[in-house]
Each structure stands twice: as structure tokens, then as C-alpha cells.
Sequence to fold (409 residues):
Amino acid sequence: MRLKVHTQILIAIVSGTMVGLALGEKAVHLKVAGDIFIRLLKMIIIPLILASMVAGIVSLGDIRRLGRIGLKTFIYYTATTLLAVGVGLVLVNVMKPGVGVDMGAEAAVDMADRETPSIISIIEDIIPENVFAGMAENKVLSVIFFSLLLGIAISSTGEKARPLTAFFESLNTVMMKVTDWIMRLAPVGVFALIAYTIGTMGLSVVKPLAVYMVTVVLGLGIHAFVTLPVLLILFGKYSPFKFIKDMFSAVATAFSTASSAATLPITMECLRENTGVSNKVASFVLPLGATVNMDGTALYEAVAAMFIAQAYGISLSIGQQLVIMLTATLASIGAAAIPGAGLVTMVIVLRAVNLPLEGIGMILAVDRILDMLRTAVNVWGDACGTAVVARLEGEELNDKAPNNQTGKN
Fold:
């Protein structure tokens, strides 16, 4: 029986730690395998962003026809993702989990030679003079901007753009396959990166990782138990205590499977049967949320990016942190359906502000439990958003009478 990828990665983390402790400085020779894995991730960034974002936007249909429900859904999902990332950035600046991590003399020299982008250069990078040059130079923000623009244009053109629609849908499918192949190599890459990190740094990296985990979990907790319930009360007119009871099986399934897509049928059933959300609203808002609304993932990526910056002694300005906020939001939307989405979109966020991708090796050691938690928050956010949109559409929900099914179609 073949083990699941996440199980293989857990085994790789444990074995990598043991080998790193055993080899010590000699573990540096294993770094080449980790470097190859990182290079493979770099290789797919640009085509993956282009294909997934364009295909994702086109799948929504004509932007002009999304109508009232579409506009409310878009505003809610964008606002909650930005709020989640904002909470994460505040916490990581206060708790500073990466400060004091010794990345070694070699890394220090590399960081000294690394040019930190200015706010002006970041703004200029968003709108490229030449999109192909932007792709060749791995300017992530340029590619995201162009992909959004192209997707909206194709979606708005209609029948004449059908060949382009088919092309990007096919390209997206092919890129998912390539990504899946690369993710199958993840256990080897993780083993090499962990062994190298532990071998050269020792167990001194464990303490910062504990603080990093606490920072992420605290951020997810604030978003799940403060931000989203407040929005649910203000705009959904629904008791958060009853709502979590109504949605418990969906959230628990999301935690155990770490998959928003796999949880979708259960989430939809809970919303329709327990809360009274109509099929019209649930069938539109919820699948869209499972695809593009990744509050927990975006928060995690922002905290992880800042942790890596702190570990390497890189000081990021407010402007650069705003770029992390924007990129984490867009990356979580654009590549949510791809295999190993959290890892791949993390690469996108790090590239946007020129942070070292090698830092991913540190955070992978604790990624699995955080993946389960952030997926549960993602599904909880989708459910809250569906209830809010339903209430804004004038539906009567079962917030007080458990057996009242008013509002179902």
C-alpha cells in the first residue's frame, strides 16, 4: 500500500532530523537534493500563476453577469482574507518568532548580497512594460496583474474568446499534472532540507519553530473566533455559538482531511439542512469559496514569510509587508486548487519580496498540523460567508428555531 504524500513527508522530517544530527556539518552534502527540489518549484511558478489565475477567473463566467450575489460574495471573501492576513502580520511583528535564529555564516553572506526591493520598485513591478520580460525575470506581481487582466478580458469577450478559454483550461490541467509530479518528490526534498538545516544549525531551530507555531495558531484562532463571528453577528444576524454547532461536522471533516474541496458536500449539506440557507445561495457562494477563499492559508503564508525574513535578518518595510498581504491574498485565490497549494503559493509570496526560498525547509517540519488547522479555518470562513450573503439577500435563516426550514428552495 502506497503511503499518502503527507505521511511520506512526516517520515522524511523525522528521518531528516536524525540524519542531520548524526552527520552534523557533513549534512551539507545533502543540500543539493533540496536545492533541486527548490529549483523545480521555482520552475513552475510563472506558468502555474498564469494558467491557474486565468482559468479560475474564466470559470466564474462573464464578470458583468455575476450580479448582486457575485458582488457581495467577492467583497466578503476579499475583505475577510485581507483581515486574516492583517491579523497574521500584526502578530508576527509583535511576537517576532524568527528573531535570533542563526542561519549560519554562508546564509549571512548570501543575504548581504541580496537586494531588498524598494516600495517604488515593487509598485513599478506590478505593471510591467513587457510582460514576457517580467515572466523571464520571475516578477511575480507583474504576472499576477497580467493574469487577472487577461482572465477578465477573456471572460468579458464571450464566444470569440472560446479558443483562449479552452487553451488556458488545458494549460491549467497540464500544470496541475506537472505540479503533482514535483510534489511526489517533496519527501526527498524535505528530507534533504531538514537534514541540512539540523546538521548545520543543530536543534537550535526547534525553539523558534515552537514560537512560530504559536503565532500561526493564535492568528488562526483570532480570525476564527473573533473576526468571523463578529461579521456573522453584524451582517449574518446569526448566533456564532449555534452556527459552530450547525457546522461542526464540516469543520471537523476539514480538519481531519486538510481539504476544502473534499469537505464541500458536507459543508453544503450542513448549511442547507441546519441553517436554512437556500440552495440558490449555497450552490454559488460555497463552491466559489472552496476555490478562492482561503483565509487560513493566506494568514499562514504571511506569517511564514515574515518568519523567514526575520530568521535571515531581513528587515521588511511597511510597504513590503503590504505587498506580502496583497500577494498572499492573490496567491491563495489563484492557486487554491493545485496539489500542495500551501507550499507552491508560499514560493509565490516569498518571490514577491525577494526572500530566500531555502527558508521553506524550516517551516515544513511543522506544516502538517498547521495545514489541518488552516483548512478548518478556510471552511469555517466559507460557511460564515455563505450565511452572511444569504442574510444580505433577505433570506430567513434558522438562527433561532432549529426545525424551521424557511428560506430553503
Q: What stands out?
A: The chain has one domain: 5-392.
